Amino acid sequence: MGRIDIICSHLPEADVFADIGCDHGYCTQYMLKNRRCRLAYISDISAGSLKKARTLLAREVEEGRCIPVVADGLDGVKECDLVLIAGMGGEEIVRILERGYLPKKFVLQPMKNSEKVRRFLIGRGCSITLDYTFEDGKFYDLIAGEAPSSKSAAADYTDWELRFGRDNLRSPSPAFLKWIRGEREKLRERLFSSVMSHESREELRKRQYELEVILDAIEGDV
Length: 222
Hints:
The chain has helices spanning 3-9, 26-33, 47-56, 58-62, 90-99, 114-123, 159-164, 166-170, 174-193, 198-221; strands at 16-20, 39-44, 66-70, 82-88, 105-110, 127-136, 138-146. The chain is of the alpha/beta class. A 7-stranded mixed β-sheet has the order 3-2-1-4-5-7-6, sandwiched between helices.
């Protein structure tokens, strides 16, 4: 499956769905076409970018089942059951949630800085229900979960789980194994071929050791 298909496969049913930074609107199309939500918001800070999704979802917009919003993050999007934020950096995702609100359920696909997203969510008491790496030409992290509630409690994450993703360490995906082996090889090459300061070399060795420990733990369980 491709990146968009994988994201869609993890979107639960909702009454009101919001796709923030919606790009072409394919995920919203999936939700509406399969009647997995009653109402959907498509939001983008750029009117030009939003136009692509409006064109794809013209019928749903006309029927009032899809509301286009030119806005920064969650601005202009009323509180909803499920929010998708995909294709942005982790710092931008955190900024959007900080200045907006925590939705009941969320699916996040940061392009980088996934650790910052995890730390923010756990720090706010959210429950992370899915947190793993997949591959579609590149490696991507997908983080899904729920806002704090009286029925759920945020689990404590270890430092390594915050950095690499809990599911990746407990039930590693093939993509995560491929990624971490690739990272280990890159570090080996840099250590052998690069001229660098003692401090930089020690930092790379520390990183290499961490990856070796993780791989030993994972491969020892296989």
